[in-house]
Amino acid sequence: MKVVLFDTHSYERESFSAANDQFGHALTFLEPRLTRDTAALAAGHQAVCAFVNDRLDAPALQAIAHTHESASGISRSTGSWGSTCTARRSA
């Protein structure tokens, strides 16, 4: 699966790549935050991973939906207990 990760930092890429070794997804790391204006960068990916600071408002989600027949949405956040990822698949 092709997964695009928005708002990634250099220190995250190594850990995401290592965690992905057992799954073999094609990861694309992007520095820009996900917004309505950057949503087009998700084109060609089956899953979109957003960070807590990304703007997942209706215009951004509509822009993603416009470029995808079906996509999974993954949100990630960090805190004192490490990173958390949740996923939702659109119909």
Task: Characterize the structure shown.
This protein is α/β, with parallel strands linked by helices and 91 residues long. The chain has two helices and five strands; from the N terminus they run βαββαββ. The protein has helices at 10-20, 58-67, and strands spanning 2-5, 26-29, 47-51, 72-79, 82-89. Strands 2-1-3-4-5 form a five-stranded mixed sheet, with helices on one face. The chain is globular, with a radius of gyration of 12 Å.
> What shape does the CA trace take?
globular
Total helical segments: 2
Strand content: 25-35%
Largest sheet: 5 strands, mixed
Q: How helix-rich are the residues, as a percent range?
A: 10-25%
Order of helices and strands: EHEEHEE
Contiguous low-pLDDT stretches (5 residues minimum) are 80-84
The class by helix and strand makeup works out as alpha/beta
Mean pLDDT: 81
Strand order of the largest sheet: 2-1-3-4-5
Cα-based radius of gyration, to the nearest Å: 12 Å
Measured between the Cα atoms of the first and last residue, the distance is 17 Å
Number of strands: 5
